[in-house]
Amino acid sequence: MEATKSVFVQTFGDSPYVRTLDFFLTFDGFDYSKSQVAGEAGVARLTLEKIWKTLIQKKFIVKTRVIGRAEMYKLNTANPEVKELLDIDFKLSHARALAEAENVKHRASEGCESYCATAQFKKALASDFPKSLSR
User: Fold this and answer.
1) 2-45: pLDDT as tens digits
2) I want to staple 76 with a disulfide (CB 3.0 to 4.6 A). Which of 3, 16, 52, 62 is the partner?
3) Structural domains in the chain?
4) Distance CA 14, CA 3 (A)
């Protein structure tokens, strides 16, 4: 099953750079190796090397530790630009969630209105309604 693209990726485009940045914005509490990021973001390792340099130059990610030969990096939440990106990501997700909730609410009310008007519903209601609860 293919994963659903995040609102951030849907908004800013499905490029390797955006997917990599989205990965760090989504999982900002932990540190990751390049291999982990490449695999999770769906970016080729060679492509990630170019993106990695940019993210480090912009101070979007920082090295946290070394485990064996793997260098671990995490999102630099102290960077003001990163703080803004996190805020934008949250606002986009919030707006999408509100829109989805309205859509579900609207579909549910339409579905209920059309189903409740059917003879099948009225028959089911009459037969399934417990006699002890009727007045």
Assistant:
1) 568 999 999 999 999 999 999 999 999 999 999 999 999 999 99
2) 62
3) 1-127 (1.10.10.10)
4) 13
As a whole number of angstroms, the distance between CA 107 and CA 5 comes to 23
Which backbone phi and psi does 3 adopt, to 5 degrees? Answer: -70, 150
Q: What DSSP string runs through 52-114?
A: HHHHHHTTSEEEEEEETTEEEEEE-TTSHHHHHHHHHHHHHHHHHHHHHHHHHHHHHHHHHHH
Residue identified by tokens 């008007």 is: 117
Comparing CA positions, the residue from 99, 89, 97, 84 lying closest to residue 26 is 89
